[in-house]
């Protein structure tokens, strides 16, 4: 049985490699499958945008790629910060602590609104920053317009993260699935109407795709509020009296901010590689975008498994069952490895077929077909780090992934990629081999941290000054 340990006691280490039961695997799969579907649904909005724009021209695809690079490099900090609240909600759900669930949701929305302002200010000077980074002159103005339009979708995008994380922690996935499905239909319809002009709509080209994305992102929280109104409205109907207490908000930021920085470091290194591609040629950037888009889409599977792990680990800690938390983490690692292996096989088997689904220019297809197998190799390591990071997040251990990303990507991956690309003359493939090495390093660090962290006592996190309960084996 879990036990409360006095503060002066020396916690005993517990075995981490506890084989999950059939019930553990079933619980993980039942939660992970809809979460994976949600992740893929979110990614499919960007895939649809890319597919529509890719058939305009390689220049249009490169402009959208550059805009998305800059937009998500900035916005991912806010999204990651809000995702970092996983532990607060899931542990409160496991403890049947409804007031804490309500406060976490309402405070999350307050922080989401506050984050829109600094993010918008950083997004606005897109054009001079892109020019300073020596991006292709013909696409910079177009990319800047796309980013400026995309700012309008910030409130919806961040509010959706908070609402989604809350429902996810409560294992209420149906409203999220429906909201993402309807938003995808709306996004695709708006792309069809606005890019080339149908049914009398103006033909806005890449700007039409950006407007479609804003409409889709804004619709998400509205749809979710309606689809999940039976759960969300009771939590939002009355303002929590401690909503604006400063100290808990600061503590929430201390938990969430490392996840935001982690996301920035991870996305930043991939985008740094994309910028280096853009400095070589527009066609090189377009090929890179095809490969990274495919890799990002399939990454939604282990990312969804990691999110499910965060929920199950957090709930187990909340209800005082440390053994179940450890079994949930191991079950997630097994499932993540299986999913990543399957996508690796596909990427290695049919790279040219996958590339031709995005673009029609032979040169871009040929280059993308050389990068897609490398994306398949790093799927294995990417899956491990995503799942391990999710399990740690469920225990409110958010700083480890941040440190792992600094060491893996910026101390190993990017320097190695630059050396292989420009000193060994491997070109774009060298940069991608650097990404593989960086992901391998991150996964090793996070697996080591997971083994150490889950071998010790596990503690429920409170941001309102309530003494924590430490769980042993």
Q: What percent of the residues sit in helical stretches (DSSP H or I)? A: over 70%
Shape: globular
Low-confidence segments, given as residue ranges, are 1-11, 467-473
Alpha-carbon Rg, integer: 22 Å
User: What strand line-up does the widest sheet have?
Assistant: 1-2
The termini sit apart by 8 Å
Explain what the structure shows.
The protein is mainly α. The protein has one domain (22-471). The protein has 17 helices and two strands. The protein has helices at residues 22-54, 58-83, 86-94, 98-123, 126-132, 140-150, 154-169, 174-194, 206-227, 229-236, 246-278, 282-318, 322-349, 351-356, 362-394, 399-423, 428-454, and strands spanning 458-459, 470-471. It has a two-stranded antiparallel sheet with strand order 1-2. Helix 1 runs antiparallel to helix 9 and helix 1 packs across helix 13 (322-349). The protein is globular and about 55 Å long.
Give a concise summary.
With 473 residues, the chain is mostly helical.
What topology emerges from the helices and strands here?
Elements: H1 22-54, H2 58-83, H3 86-94, H4 98-123, H5 126-132, H6 140-150, H7 154-169, H8 174-194, H9 206-227, H10 229-236, H11 246-278, H12 282-318, H13 322-349, H14 351-356, H15 362-394, H16 399-423, H17 428-454, E1 458-459, E2 470-471
Antiparallel strand pairs: 1-2
Helix pairs in contact: 1-8, 1-9, 1-12, 1-13, 2-4, 2-6, 2-7, 2-11, 2-12, 3-4, 3-7, 3-12, 4-7, 5-6, 6-9, 7-9, 8-9, 9-10, 11-12, 11-16, 11-17, 12-13, 12-15, 13-15, 15-17, 16-17
